[in-house]
Automatic annotation (TrEMBL), chain A:
Name listed for the protein in its UniProt record: KIF-binding protein
Gene: kifbp
Coiled-coil boundaries: 317-370
Role summary: Activator of KIF1B plus-end-directed microtubule motor activity. Required for organization of axonal microtubules, and axonal outgrowth and maintenance during peripheral and central nervous system development.
A matching Pfam family: KBP_C
Length: 653, 364
């Protein structure tokens, strides 16, 4: 449905009679010209789609012939006029582009409603269509020539309702043409001029301008104002769309992002979009913003994506999907795209929590009170700035979606959380989207996607745990992570999911390690260790060891051999795993001296491995500097401890 | 030409590329017939020089084979090792890539598709079957037993068709925690010898032809994926070791049809005037999302069906070889360049994902 647009109240200056006045003398011939034009349009846009594979441009060539005839008729209409018109045959296109963003040079001469101006505009339009036709049939240089002729014809014309559409569209085409030749700066020049022309026209005039097709229609077929506006705005949306691509190709990413954003907004505003496609694009843009730490913009894109995706309609029921293939397709599409948007929301919550954690943590990864106070203070200032930023940002929405988008935004914060309460609010939103995404991406059928969602869920818990001050409760959060991942890690076939398996094993090992540390911290506050606590502590140690070991085993060949050289992507994780296993062995609590001795020997073995590997492969040193230093230290200290223990053991026997 | 055996000692599992130059002969149906100008020279067993202006360009690959290479040495370089790995439980994939008429079919199948399976000129696929069953027979002597299944599908226009069941509608890709990625409902045929495997292949190949004429599916625009699933059982102490592996043989769409976004450079995507869609806006935005800064992000655009199906082969847990076929005629310069560039890009495909490790406060 089209949204109604308010048109300027100044009545149209454009009289159609005037445009066709000179032609009226030849009304009979003129009618023939209009018919030809209609035929050419039809051939070019409808018929050409049915052209056979071996003659793909048949209809386009026919259309070209008609356009040429129109051109000749137009030239003939003016016999007897004293206008000196440049013969287009002498008009070789200049090598230098006419455009370079110099909008001061726009002509102030002709206007579309002077006979000369009207003639130039018509000839220009035919040149434009001929240019597009040649480009479409892969004759680029001829196409360029026609487009440049169009530019030349219009040079003397001012930016008026009769000309402005053609001004913009011919530059859009030239932009595409030059970009295709790898001359991006040239393309940029044309497109930026088109942009400047639009802005200036809207400032100075702004009434719905004539469409290109209207040069060749009978008076009674003139377009309604609303349709004129729509086509004109669409052409400008395309200008922005091309500019977004040009800036991307020039690696001006921030600018490209801005133009993508504006393109999306205009699609909404003028109701020229497909809901699902639009929503996915907005959600993707949100991911650009969050990688740039622009959470306010990211949240805005996501809220808009969610609202617009809902416009795509109701999800057909499973029963309906069973009945018809079209319904099944629609059901799958809707569910999938909405789940994708939910996944983008998850990343938003996750990054917001993780970034806050980075700001707040001290050098051992605990919450730093001073930083917390600092962040609270700066946030007050920032909020005012944000509000100002919001006012200047391009906001999404059409008249009937704007409120829902803002409403959805308010459901989650876009500033860094400073304490557990705030972090929890963001966590809960993230968790809601986790559940939504899992509804479509079920384990059976979407293994990789499902696991990635779980990994995000685990990461959300991990980030939230940072804000939790109570160590016991923090431990429980990590336990939730274990419960999520452990069963999958057991069932997953490493033959096909080697990398995912490794990620899960490593994360489980780390999580148990973390829990072991927390238990230790809790125990240190108590006076004596009871048997239960010791048992629990040892269990966490062994579990962590088990998963590190599984990860290490995944590096072995099918025959169980250790590689001479670790591959880049597992080099650091594998050495870190060895180092952790060494520490875990030395942490195990046992009352038996024999077992203590065994554990220490194992520990030494692993430390030795790390040191030896780095000796053999010096290039590995940089990857694990800290761990290596500690390992070297332990390799020199542990034997003393082991000897003491051995002596002790010998004397007691 | 001196043939080099590629050894398997500690080779990293990145993708390997084998470039093969076809001889310049008449009657290839290419526009180069009668034109004797060459656009390339094989300068060593690993390098190829393209006579581009103003400067000639040299490309380096794992192996470059000139016109006179025998079918047997192509097999030995490319497939022998992969087939051996399959027997030992690794997955393996061989892709054939190149423009129509560059010798893909000759390399993969042999001179005239399926006439004789004993011809000295038979291609990589029949030789792989022979070698695979030769190894199976040898292994079977020491109490190992094998089960071998084949499926054959075609991907056309992002739809999947079963070439072993021409009556079937398009199929879906799914994933399963045990089986990995698979085509749901694809026919699987058990085979016990090279000849049987070859029969299954030729039946599917014929169906592909029929489909391309009767259903307007151009075979030069489709990818065909022949998959052999190998299951081995080995009784060990009290337990039975079961290993499965897959061998994928892939005939990619002619490279001249592969005008994908990566080869178009700076060309702008045009807005379609037909509907309200700015189809490629998403791709532009996607390119802006920075992957390098370690942030977690989600991209909503799905992989193509082919990359999804072969995800494992593209920088995963598998041995992969790409055979890039090129035509030396100077008229083919453009296509040859883009094939060589594609093959070079393929070399860079590594596993993108990493082991996530929290480096904060872990040394305590």
């Amino acid at each position: 449905m089209d949204t109604t647009l308010s048109t300027p109240t100044t009545g149209p200056r454009l009289s159609h009679t005037e445009i066709t006045n000179m032609a009226s003398t030849y009304s009979h011939e003129w009618r023939a010209v209009c018919d030809k034009f209609n035929n050419a349009q039809d051939l070019s846009e409808v018929e050409s789609r049915k052209d056979p594979e071996n003659d793909p441009f048949r209809s386009k060539y026919k259309a070209r012939e008609l356009l040429r005839e129109i051109y000749c008729s137009l030239k003939n209409f003016d016999v007897g006029e004293n206008e000196s018109v440049n013969d287009e045959a002498d008009q070789r296109p200049t090598e230098q582009p006419v455009d370079g963003g110099m909008e001061e040079s726009f002509g102030r001469g002709h206007c579309g409603d002077s006979p000369a101006g009207s003639r130039a505009a018509k000839l220009g339009a035919v040149e434009y269509y001929l240019g597009v036709n040649h480009v479409e049939t892969e004759e680029l240089s001829a196409g360029e020539e026609h487009l440049m002729n169009c530019m030349t014809l219009l040079e003397k014309c001012s930016i008026s309702p009769e000309n402005v559409s053609l001004f913009i569209q011919v530059r859009n085409q030239l932009g595409i043409l030059w970009a295709g030749r790898d001359e991006i700066e040239k393309a940029q020049g044309f497109l930026e001029t088109a942009e400047a022309m639009y802005i200036r026209y809207m400032k100075e005039d702004g009434q719905p301008p004539m469409d290109l097709t209207e040069f060749f229609v009978a008076e009674e077929e003139a377009l309604p104002q609303q349709e004129r506006t729509k086509r004109f705005e669409m052409a400008y949306t395309h200008t922005l769309y091309y500019l977004a691509q040009v800036y991307k190709n020039l690696e001006q990413y921030e600018k490209a992002g801005g133009y993508c954003h504006s393109t999306l907004q205009r699609q909404l505003e003028f109701n020229q979009f497909l809901p699902l496609e639009w929503a996915i694009n907005a959600a993707t843009l949100s991911q650009y913003y969050i990688t740039k730490t622009l959470y306010m913009e990211g949240r805005h894109c996501l809220s808009a994506a969610s609202v617009i995706a809902d416009l795509a309609g109701e999800v057909p029921s499973e029963a309906a999907a069973q009945e018809s293939e079209a319904e099944a397709e629609k059901r799958d599409q809707l569910r999938q795209k909405r789940a994708e948007i939910a996944r983008c929301w998850i990343k938003y919550c996750l990054n917001l929590l993780q970034d806050a954690k980075k700001l707040l943590e001290d050098n051992i990864g605990e919450l730093d009170m001073d930083r917390q106070a600092e962040l609270r203070a700066t946030r007050l200032k920032e909020e005012e700035e944000k509000e100002r930023g919001r006012k200047s940002a391009v906001l999404f929405g059409s008249s009937d979606t704007f409120d829902s988008i803002c409403g959805l935004e308010e459901k989650v914060s876009c500033v860094f959380p400073v304490d557990f309460e705030e972090a929890r609010a963001i966590f809960l939103v993230g968790q809601t989207y986790v559940n939504q995404a899992k509804e479509y991406f079920e384990m059976d059928g979407h293994v990789t996607d499902h696991i990635e969602i779980l990994q995000d869920h685990s990461a959300l818990f991990k980030a939230l745990a940072f804000f939790e001050e109570d160590l016991e409760r923090r431990c429980k959060m990590h336990k939730r992570r274990v419960d999520m991942m452990e069963p999958i890690c057991k069932d997953l076939n490493a033959q096909y999911y080697l990398l995912v398996c490794r990620q899960l094993q490593f994360e489980l090992a780390e999580t148990y390690y973390e829990m072991m540390d927390l238990k230790l911290a809790v125990a240190n506050k108590q006076d004596d260790l009871d048997a239960h606590t010791v048992k629990k502590f040892n269990h966490l140690c062994s579990s962590s060891t088990k998963f590190y070991q599984m990860f290490l085993d995944s590096v072995r060949s099918p025959e169980g051999k250790w590689p001479e050289k670790l591959e880049d992507e597992v080099l650091r994780p594998a050495l870190v795993a060895k180092f952790r296993v060494a520490r875990l062995h030395s942490r195990l609590i046992s009352s038996s001296k024999t077992i203590q001795l065994e554990n220490l020997n194992r520990s030494l073995e692993c430390y030795n491995f790390v040191v030896q590997y780095c000796k053999d492969n010096p290039e590995a040193k940089s990857a694990i500097e800290t761990e290596l230093e500690l390992s070297e230290e332990m390799v020199s200290l542990l034997p003393l401890k082991i000897n003491r223990l051995q002596a002790n053991l010998a004397s007691s026997n | 030409m001196q043939h080099q055996q590629i050894t398997n000692s500690g080779d990293s599992d990145s993708i390997k590329v084998f470039v093969r130059v076809r001889p310049l002969t008449q009657g290839t149906g290419l526009t180069t017939d009668g034109d004797q100008g060459l656009c390339l020279t094989v300068t060593s067993p690993n390098t190829i020089r393209l006579h581009s202006k103003p400067e000639p360009r040299t490309f380096t690959y794992d192996h470059v084979a000139d016109m006179d290479i025998t079918q047997d040495s192509v097999f030995s370089s490319v497939a022998k090792n992969i087939v051996e790995s399959c027997i030992n439980g690794y997955n393996g994939t061989i892709f054939a890539y190149g423009q129509t008429g560059s010798g893909k079919t000759f390399t993969m199948l042999g001179p005239s598709d399926f006439d004789n399976f004993t011809d000295d000129q038979r291609g990589v696929i029949p030789r792989s079957f022979e070698y695979l069953f030769f190894l199976i027979d040898r292994e079977s002597e020491n109490a190992k037993s094998f089960l071998c299944k084949c499926s054959f599908i075609e991907i056309y226009n992002e739809q999947i068709y079963d070439l072993l069941d021409s009556a079937s509608a398009s199929l879906f890709l799914r994933e399963n925690i045990k089986k990995g990625v698979f085509v749901e409902g694809a026919v699987e045929k058990f085979v016990t010898s090279a000849a049987e495997a070859y029969q299954v292949l030729s039946m599917g190949w014929r169906n592909r032809r029929v489909a391309s004429t009767s259903m307007n599916r151009e075979s030069s625009r489709s990818h065909a994926v022949f998959t052999m699933t190998l299951e081995s059982k080995e009784p060990a102490k009290e337990v039975v070791n079961i290993r499965t592996s897959q061998l994928n043989l892939v005939d990619l769409a002619g490279s001249e049809r592969q005008r994908d976004t990566h080869t178009e450079g700076s060309r702008l995507k045009e807005a379609s005037s037909i509907n309200r869609s700015l189809m490629c806006l998403g791709q532009v935005i996607m390119a802006l999302v920075d992957v390098s800064n370690g942030k977690s992000r989600h991209i909503c655009y799905r992989d193509s069906k082919l990359t999804f199906l072969l995800r494992d082969s593209l920088g995963g847990n598998a041995k992969t070889y790409i055979i890039a076929n090129v035509h030396p005629g100077s008229k083919c310069f453009g296509e040859t360049l883009s094939t060589l560039q594609f093959a070079q890009r393929a070399k860079l495909i590594k596993n993108k994902a990493m082991i996530n490790e929290d480096t904060q406060g872990n040394v305590r």
